[in-house]
TrEMBL record:
The keyword Oxidoreductase applies. SUPFAM superfamilies: GroES-like, NAD(P)-binding Rossmann-fold domains. Keywords: NADP, Oxidoreductase. The keyword Iron does not apply. Pfam families: ADH_N, ADH_zinc_N. Residues 13-321 form the Enoyl reductase (ER) domain. It comes from Agaribacillus aureus. It comes from the Bacteria. This is Zinc-dependent alcohol dehydrogenase family protein.
Length: 324
């Protein structure tokens, strides 16, 4: 089978190669999944560069998230061949994967494969951050990287909860898309002063919470937009640059700064809570209460082209890989 692998750390467009490896065999409690679609997330790119919370053991396959159908089952697992499932693993960008059966999530019939392969990392992150935020109807939330898939999920969930959102973009083409998605306000940081716009929008009060995905100077500015007693949640670093923390702001405005990593949040849930969260997220996607955008899909053989598209500015949807 074909597998996107790397033998050294670096930019994926430089170090990834397609390699022929055997189709895995399932062990006890495991399943082998025929991969139909894979998602390309920023976390995947950072993993290949050795900049993610999980370090690769080289050589390594790439990709964390996908959707497919049951190919074979190991001892103790009884699932019909062809059952459609969502999975997470290290090495999703290949034609078959082997994963523990207890970690997969069945796909509702209403979800196509291009949406299903996005059903875990971003919507679960959006849901988890909102659940942990304490935000209520009428509050203001600032989202950097507002046109990202995760931010769009947050915006749609906030719309249902009547939470106001301000999204940052760098391209005017993304403004109407975000407004259609449900964003209250959108600020192009290439043209406008973010802090001045936030203060104008919120009548000089600032936002109660920031979900920050970029780091660097944008993250530093976003911190300045928070009201007294507000909270700053960092969950990404798309710029690959650390942000500067203004100590005076933290002290005199009593701002809380924290991080969010989906792996840690999921680990804090009981089995019952995990089942409930999975049901809520899958139902929201299946009923299109929240929607997942797709801009383009590529065969696995065009992995480099797909990543180049994913990293291009002004994108309004996910880039999907099709291993089969």
């Amino acid at each position: 089978m074909k597998s996107a692998q790397f033998e050294k750390l670096g930019p994926p467009t430089t170090v990834l190669t397609l390699t022929d490896i055997p189709i895995p065999e399932p062990g006890p409690g495991e399943v082998v999944i025929k991969v139909n679609t894979c998602n390309i997330n920023p976390a995947d790119i950072m993993f290949v560069q050795g900049m993610y919370g999980i370090r690769p053991e080289l050589p390594s396959a790439a990709g964390f998230e996908g959707a497919g159908s049951i190919h074979t089952c190991g001892e103790g697992v009884q699932m019909p061949e062809g059952t459609r499932v969502v999975f997470i693993t290290i090495g999703a960008w290949q034609q078959y994967v082997r994963v523990p059966a207890k970690t997969i999530i069945p796909i509702p019939d209403e979800l196509n494969d291009e949406v299903a392969c996005q059903a875990f990392v971003n919507p679960f992150t959006a849901y988890g951050m909102l659940e942990s935020s304490g935000l209520v109807a009428g509050d203001w939330l600032l989202l950097t990287a507002g046109a990202s898939a995760c931010s769009k999920f947050v915006v749609q969930m906030c719309r249902e909860r009547q939470i106001n959102t301000i999204c940052t973009v760098r391209d005017d083409k993304q403004i109407n898309t975000l407004k259609d998605t449900g964003a209250t306000e959108v600020v192009n940081t290439e043209k406008d002063d973010l802090k001045a716009e936030v203060m104008r929008i919120t009548a000089k009060n600032g936002v109660k919470h920031v979900f920050e995905a970029v780091g660097g100077s944008l993250g530093t500015t976003a911190l300045e937009c928070i009201t007294r007693g507000g909270t700053f949640t960092a969950y990404g670093m798309l710029s690959l640059q650390n942000m500067a923390l203004n100590t005076s702001l933290l002290i005199f405005k009593n701002i809380t700064v924290r991080g969010f990593w989906l792996t840690s949040w999921l680990g804090s849930l009981s089995k019952e809570e995990m089942i409930l969260v999975s049901k809520k997220v899958m139902t929201a996607l299946a009923t299109q209460q929240v929607k997942a955008d797709v801009e383009a899909s590529y065969p696995l053989e065009e992995i480099i082209k797909a990543i180049e598209h994913m990293e291009s500015p002004g994108r309004n949807g996910k880039i999907i890989l099709r291993p089969h």
